[in-house]
Amino acid sequence: MFWPVLKNFMEHWKAMKEKKSSPVGIPPKLSKELAVHKWVEQFSQDLEEVYGARDAPLTYLTRTNVATPVNIAAAPRAVDQPYAEIYTSIQEEMKFCLSHTHNLMRADNATLFHRIDTAVAGHDVSATIAPYRKTQDGRGAWLSIKDQHAGRHIYDKIVKDATYVLTVRKWTGAASITMAQHLGAH
């Protein structure tokens, strides 16, 4: 290790510790007016700011692939930086490289579950996470919500509906849809 690398690591680590000690706030609430796939994006951004017991953003729990990159130790480091070239920060490297077998992962997983439970309380989606309530499995709840309410089939339906509006629907002026509503759909 060289001094510039250690110095940059200490700066990054100090910033992460300050972020962890700052108040977190409440997660974005899922409501009837907000589509689930849009809430998933907002919640993912919110998780970037929430640090768990491992001093890492909780987004490491929401990645699709549980396995950590095999050759991360051999990956070249960015110039004078404590993280690999393929990442832009220590937080991003932690997001993709922290293992899901560490003992403190359970505490982070429970924190993730509580944030999800708070965010979806009172919405139809809350029934989706009910099987994970006893085990406090935040990762399972997150993947279940994404698969059932914001998965590829939902995006395909949105694209299909939008394509229909753009290519088939015509405004004749005879229906109850105004010109402004028709143009708004486009």
Overall average residue pLDDT? 83
Which stretches are low in confidence, meaning pLDDT under 50 for 5 or more residues running?
none
Largest sheet: none
Order of helices and strands: HHHHHHH
Structural class category: mainly alpha
- For the terminal residues, how far apart are their CA atoms? 57 Å
Coarse morphology:
elongated
> Mind telling me the C-alpha Rg?
21 Å
Number of helices: 7
Portion of residues in beta strands equals: under 5%
Total count of strands: 0
Q: How many separate domains?
A: 2
Percent of residues in helical segments? 40-55%
What does this structure look like?
- The protein is built from seven helices and no strands.
- The chain is mainly alpha-helical and 186 residues long.
- The protein has two domains: 3-150, no CATH class; 153-186, no CATH class.
- The longest helix is centred in the first third of the chain and has 19 residues, at 3-21.
Quick recap:
The chain has 186 residues and is mostly helical.
What are the salient characteristics of this protein?
186 residues, mainly alpha, 7 helices, 48% helix
Give the secondary structure arrangement, pairings included.
Layout: H1 3-21, H2 36-47, H3 90-97, H4 105-120, H5 138-149, H6 152-167, H7 179-185
